[in-house]
C-alpha cells in the first residue's frame, strides 16, 4: 500500500491545498495540534503514529515529545502533503521522523506497533471511521492510547458565511450537509470508541481564536484546507458575489480594531484499548 495509494475522497481536496495548507498566516491547525500532543502525554522514547499528518501540526510537536530516542511516523493519502512535510522534516534535521503515503482508513503496520496513535482533525473525513478506529486499536501496544480531535460547536458566523457561499453553488451541485455522525457530541464519541474496542478516558474541549485581515484573507484560508471542497464547485463568475455575501454574513465576526476573528472549538478525545482487540 505504501507509495501506491492515490488521493481519493477528502484527500484529493487536500492534495490541491497542500502548498498553502496552514501557510496563510492564520493561527488554527498549529495550536490545535500542539494541544492534542499535550493531551497525549507522550514520553521520550515512545513510538508514535500520526494519521492524516497534513503539514505536521501534530507531527512536529509529537517529534519534540518523543525526542530522538523515540520515533514518529506520519501518514497521509495526499502525496503533496507527504512530500512537503518530508522536506520540512529533513530541513529540521529530524532523523527520528518519517512521513509516507498511506491510507488512514487502514494503516499498513503490524499490530502493537505504537505507544500512541494520533489523529488531528481527520477521522470524520474517512469513509468508514468506525473501522479505522478499530484498526488503530489493533496498532496500539496494551499500554498505548489513541488521541483524536474532532470539531465541536461551530462559530455561528463561520456557519453563516459558509451557508452564504453554498447559496451560490450551481443548482445541480449537492449542498454541504451536516448529518448526524459518530463524532457529533461526547456521547456519540464515547459510543463510537466503545464500538471500536476502545475506552474513553477523557474528552476535553479546546478553543482557538483565529484572526483574518479581511474577507479576502478568510477566503484564501478557506481555499487552503477542507473549505476548498465547497469553493471549488463555485462557478468562477459567482465568486465576487459569493465573497460579498460571505463578508456580510461575517459581520458578527468583525473585530473592534479591524479585521475578522472567529473562534473554533474542537474536542480532544483520549482512549485506551478496552481489552483484546476485535478480530
Ligand atoms: C484537516 S487535515 C489535518 C492535518 C493535520 N493532522 C493537522 O492537524 O493539521 C486532514 C488531513 O487528512 C488527510 N487525509 C484525508 N483522508 C485521508 C486518508 N484516507 N488517509 C490518510 N490521510 C487522509 C488529508 O490529506 C489532510 O492532510
From TrEMBL:
SUPFAM superfamilies: S-adenosyl-L-methionine-dependent methyltransferases (SSF53335)
Annotated InterPro entries: CFA/CMAS, Methyltransf_25, SAM-dependent_MTases_sf
Cross-referenced Pfam families: Methyltransf_25
Record's protein name: Methyltransferase domain-containing protein
Residue ranges constituting the Methyltransferase domain according to the UniProt record: 48-144
